[in-house]
Amino acid sequence: MKIENLLVTGAAGGIATALRPLLPAFAERVVLSDIASVAALGPHESFIACNLADAAAVNELVQGMDAIIHLGGISVEKPFAMILDGNIVGAYNLFEAARNAGRPRIVFASSNHVVGFHRRDQRLDASAPPRPDTLYGVSKAFGEALASYYHDKFGQECLSVRIGSCFPAPIDRRMLATWLAIEDFADLCACALLAPRLGHTLIYGVSDNDESWWDNREATFLGWRPKHSSARWRADLMERMPPQDPTSPAVVYQGGQFCVIGHPG
Ligand code: NAI
Ligand code: 15L
């Protein structure tokens, strides 16, 4: 079974660019959207420019969609005005548009920075309280709360994914624990969007790495089993990357450097 019309926001970004070639495995037609333009469309793809902060435009964008992978927004710490537009107003507009369009399922790209101020020697599951390490992390906690509210009140199904580090390869020691292979993320989206039941589920988006701070047992009903691991980069990264001060907040806490950067204002 495939999704007929899949919307991907944030389509010009790093994750979406890597994800696009993997989408035909579970989607017939893909509508890509971003404020930035997207190049080289495939025959199954179309592009619609849209600012997530524009409620009317988002409403129009979501009409006729059967599922949404919501990747659009600010993806690192930035001044609050930017985060407000992209991640707070933007997420609200997206959930409202879904409510007006028959509630297509949503995969919401949340972030590990919602829980960045939990210590690395703690193992977190979906019930861990938010301890955001940045205003960016606060905005993602807002998105998760929206998903919970729209599910409980209106029956919107959504998977909130606290993505670890989704890049072609881990680039520092921390990412040995937080790395998410794009193939594993694609499988997770397919499981969530095609599962018989999704409800509002929260999961940590992380591959099958040797070191892990996160426990996804509550979401095993989705049938997602990550197949990739950061293990093959471990020896090289441990040799190349100098050991860090173990008492630094960037090492004590899960959010890493995000825990030590200052206020963006
Ligand atoms: P990215 O920054 O490369 O892509 C985000 C895209 O959103 C950009 O193309 C940007 O133009 C678009 N965007 C920003 N504001 C917008 C607005 N107001 N309206 C429409 N589009 C807007 O980020 P990346 O790495 O691809 O991440 C995708 C999502 O996953 C983001 O929401 C990010 O917060 C989340 N995430 C990513 C992680 C990673 O390791 N790459 C880790 C945790 C979460
Ligand atoms: C995120 O939420 C960011 O979007 C990404 O750029 C990385 O910093 C990632 O977290 C991470 O924690 O490695």
The strand count comes to 7
The CATH fourth-level homologous superfamily: NAD(P)-binding Rossmann-like Domain
CATH architecture: 3-Layer(aba) Sandwich
- End-to-end distance: 47 Å
Shape: globular
* Ligand kinds: 1,4-dihydronicotinamide adenine dinucleotide, D-galactaro-1,5-lactone
Give the strand order, joined by hyphens, for the main sheet.
Answer: 3-2-1-4-5-6-7
Contiguous helical run count:
8
Return the domain count.
1
Along the chain, the helix and strand elements come as EHEEHEHEHEHHEHH
- In what range is the share of β-strand residues? 15-25%
State the major sheet.
Answer: 7 strands, parallel
Describe the structure.
- The protein has helices at 14-19, 55-62, 80-100, 135-154, 175-178, 182-194, 231-240, 249-252, and strands at residues 3-9, 27-34, 45-49, 67-70, 105-111, 158-163, 200-205.
- With 265 residues, the protein is an alpha/beta fold.
- It has one domain: Rossmann fold, CATH 3.40.50.720.
- A 7-stranded parallel beta sheet has the order 3-2-1-4-5-6-7, sandwiched between helices.
- Helix 3 links the parallel strand 4 and strand 5 (105-111).
- Helix 2 (55-62) crosses helix 3 (80-100) and helix 3 packs parallel to helix 4.
- The mean pLDDT is 97.
- Residues 75-76, 111-113, 165, 178 line the site of D-galactaro-1,5-lactone (15L).
Give a brief description.
With 265 residues, the protein is an alpha/beta fold.
